[in-house]
Amino acid sequence: MSNRKKLRRTPALSLLIRAQDGARISGGCDTCNAYQTIRADAYGANVHAITVHHDDWCPTYNAMKVTA
Ligand SMILES: [Zn+2]
Q1: What are the DSSP calls for 37-56, one per residue?
Q2: Share of the chain above pLDDT 90, in %
Q3: pTM value surpassing 0.70
Q4: Does residue 8 have a pLDDT over 70?
Q5: CA of 27 to the centre of ligand 1 (A)
Q6: Cα of 32 to ligand 1 centre, how many Å?
Q7: Where exactly are the structural domains of the chain?
Q8: In this predicted structure, what is the pLDDT of residue 64?
Q9: 22 conformational bin, left if phi > 0, alpha if psi -120 to 50, beta if neither
Q10: How far, in Å, from the CA of 3 to the mean position of ligand 1?
Q11: C-alpha 15 to ligand 1 mean position (Å)
Q12: What pLDDT, in 10s, does the model give residues 23-41?
């Protein structure tokens, strides 16, 4: 039996995030001039995403990339 708590819906928080849908926020990386974008329903209703967009030359980003 799992002791994990069932995730609660947080409609007030989702409303705040939805109001910022598509917003571009400066920062997100200490190494390059990255920016972040907000997608309110990126993976379904109330499933939000913030994406960090690094510069191509960013060593932090390049260290995180999976090469296959
Ligand atoms: Zn970066």
Answers
A1: EEETTBTBTT--EEEEE--T
A2: 62
A3: yes
A4: no
A5: 9
A6: 4
A7: 11-64
A8: 92
A9: left
A10: 37
A11: 29
A12: 999 999 999 999 999 999 8
